[in-house]
Amino acid sequence: MVYEFGARLLQLRKAKNLTQQALVDRAKALDPDLRLSDSVLGNYESDHTVPRLTEAAALAEVLGVSLDFLTNGENSRTLPLKDLSDSQIQLLMDLTQAFRQRNEATPQTERPDKPTNEQSELISRVIREIWR
Fold first, then answer.
1. DSSP secondary structure string for all residues of 4-18
2. Number of other CB atoms surrounding residue 50 within 10 Å
3. pTM to 2 decimals?
4. 105 lies in a domain?
5. Is residue 67 domain-shared with residue 102, that is, in the same domain?
6. What tens digit of pLDDT does each residue of 45-102 get?
7. Distance (Å, rounded) from C-alpha 9 to C-alpha 65?
8. Compositionally biased, Polar residues: which spans (predicted)?
């Protein structure tokens, strides 16, 4: 829950071997307008105050976790997409959907030995994108 925010923030910072100042510097590199300093970060870590959304989002990004995890401890797995093209993002979404359909459709033991035509086309798209 949010009341454990400070402990989670401290644990993540230490796991990354970052000082408070180093974490502040990396977060401010993302957004120089953040209201963040090492003393402010110390207040967050000791649960004296909680950050605004913009500060929390920057801290989560630097620490490599989702905002959900940082604030609530819920470990939602996410993929960073910011350096991908629109076609690469669409390809990942299509691939994810294909995995879901396959997992929901048949139990592991009943799966065919070779991919469907749609799956083969998706695999071809992945290969073409990688070798582009």
1. GHHHHHHHHHHHTT-
2. 14
3. 0.58
4. yes
5. no
6. 999 998 999 999 999 999 998 888 888 886 656 667 778 888 888 888 888 888 888 7
7. 10
8. 100-109
Cα–Cα dist 3/124, whole Å:
47
Residue 111 contacts residue 120 (beta carbons within 8 Å): no
Pair of tokens at residue 82: 């910011």
Note the residue count of the chain.
Answer: 132
What is each CA distance from 128 to 51, 88, 94, in whole angstroms?
Answer: 43, 11, 15
Pairwise CA distance, residues 18 & 63, whole Å: 10
- Bigger pLDDT: 126 vs 11: 11
Residue for token pair 């649960």: 47
AA identity, residue 99? F
Please report the DSSP string for 77-97 in residue order: -----TTS-HHHHHHHHHHHH
